[in-house]
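Dear colleagues,

As part of the handover before I leave the project, I'm documenting each prediction I ran so the next person doesn't have to rerun anything. This entry is a single chain, and its sequence is reproduced below.
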Amino acid sequence: MIGIVGTLLGAALGFVALRWLLSGLGDVMPELSITATLSGQTWSTTLVLGVLVVALAPLLNIRKLQRMDIPATLRVVE
């Protein structure tokens, strides 16, 4: 869920920032008429990659988690 929400929020805010930047560019250089567009394929690729990154991130700590002595760690917390 975090991967989906984070990816959609990041892509939407990035698109808003892109449109804002391009609207300012039209005032400075009117000969460059660039339109900000995103296709459905771009949205789906972004969503899939964002979810995969969030899902696979815990694998970077797998060796540390396997070596961790959880009962001893919980005793320290008590």
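The two ends are 31 Å apart (CA to CA). The chain has one domain: 2-77.

All the best with the project,
I.
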